[in-house]
Amino acid sequence: MVSILQAVDLIVAQSKNFGCQAVSIDDSLNRVLAEDVCVDRDYPPFNRSAMDGYAVVSSDFNIGQAVKLQLTEKLLAGGFSKSKVVSGTCIKIMTGAPVPAGADAVVRLEDTVENNNIVEFVVTTVKVKQNIALQAEDAKSSDLIISKNSILDARAIPVLAVLGKAKVKVFNQPKVAVVSTGNEIVSVESAILPHQIRDSNSYSIKNFLKKYAINDVTAIHIADDKQRLITEIEKLLDNDILILSGGVSKGDADYVPEVLMSLGVKQIFHRVQIKPGAPLWFGVMPNGGVVFGLPGNPVSVQVAVKVFIEPFIRACFGMETIKPLLLSIFTDKKKKTKLDEYFPCKIVIKNNVTGIVSNRMNGSGDIAATLGSDGIALHPSSMDMIHENMILEFYPW
């Protein structure tokens, strides 16, 4: 039995790059960037009006009395003025338009009255650069703006569009298969008998993988039949990642480790000092792909995916391991095992302090234990009891 840290190190040591490709930004959501993205020009590319108002010369103000200026032009966003603002004049300007030459401030519409091309200003103080977004204040040409190995989320993709990156270089996705095992397991669509359980683990795993845009996943169910396991798993040994749930513990029908090794899969470790999920099995296929054999209970699967599979995937994409948040727990908690234990929690605010409270959980088979939770916290093996306001490691889902 290995420790959690040993297990993660052994898993990450098997990580590898899957190559890269250029994809349309329309297809890049949650893909991992395989290149640094730099700014193509200054942003803003010009001094830009941040308000609907009037471009003025600030020295016309600050004289202690109302100011009236001659309106010489109206400028919309997308337009460009060839005129120069001089003392005694102003140009009406809309948000986003380039500030005309000569102007060094913009006064908002709400502070003016316009009549017959004469604009009266009800403010007497105007500062230089007022209501102007200065050229390059957001980013300068050639600046690094999105680093390689970043996930292209819904905030990053619009930036790519602004930069003119119609295509972007991303890492290829691994080929993944997910297998649910067990005589008691039936599909979501099937009629169910009292002694049967609908498959949920494949949905936990597949939906986690979508976080990294690994969407094309083969998912099958295999009963606890040794020969059928051999036949069906052999067909999946060309995958980069094979994830099985169930059949890895010490029961009479837990054939998965034996079957995997009979097919040439090299065992790296079996069993980890963790709860839930101690029977975890990990190995390497003849093609260099990896196999995760997870216990069958739903919370065990969710914890194993977060603690063990996610670090492997991130390492393959050249990403850093996610560091835990350090948060106070607002309740006491006792555990019975001597193992490191992960438990689902909600983030709450108490007395203006952000912390966590544990979800109610009736063991790792509790189908609703993680429902509504924000992540999992670690109850270290060194502590039988956690007391209120202790600081714990917390891993958001």
List the helices and strands and how they pair.
Blueprint: H1 4-12, E1 20-24, E2 37-38, E3 48-49, E4 53-56, E5 67-75, E6 89-93, E7 105-108, E8 112-115, E9 118-121, E10 132-133, E11 144-146, H2 156-162, E12 167-171, E13 176-181, E14 185-186, E15 197-198, H3 201-209, E16 217-222, H4 226-234, E17 241-245, H5 256-262, E18 266-270, E19 274-275, E20 281-284, E21 290-294, H6 298-316, E22 325-329, E23 333-334, E24 340-350, E25 353-358, E26 375-379, E27 385-386, E28 391-396
Parallel strand pairs: 5-6, 13-16, 13-17, 14-15, 17-21, 19-24, 22-25
Antiparallel strand pairs: 1-12, 2-11, 3-10, 4-6, 4-7, 5-9, 8-9, 18-20, 20-21, 22-28, 23-27, 24-25, 24-26, 26-28
Helix pairs in contact: 1-6, 3-6, 4-5
Q: Kindly state the number of beta strands.
A: 28
Specify Rg, calculated over alpha carbons: 30 Å
Low-confidence sequence ranges = none
Mind telling me the CATH superfamily name of the largest domain? MoaB/Mog-like domain
By CATH, the architecture of the largest domain is named 3-Layer(aba) Sandwich
What's the CATH class of the largest domain, please? Alpha Beta
Q: What is the averaged pLDDT score? A: 97
Query: How many angstroms separate the termini?
Result: 26 Å
> Number of DSSP helices?
6
* Coarse shape: elongated
Biggest sheet statistics: 6 strands, mixed
CATH fold field value of the largest domain: Molybdenum Cofactor Biosythetic Enzyme, Chain A
Strand order of the largest sheet: 7-4-6-5-9-8
Query: In the residues, how many domains can be counted?
Result: 4
- Helix content range: 10-25%
Task: Return the structural class.
Answer: alpha/beta
Task: Work out the strand percent.
Answer: 25-35%
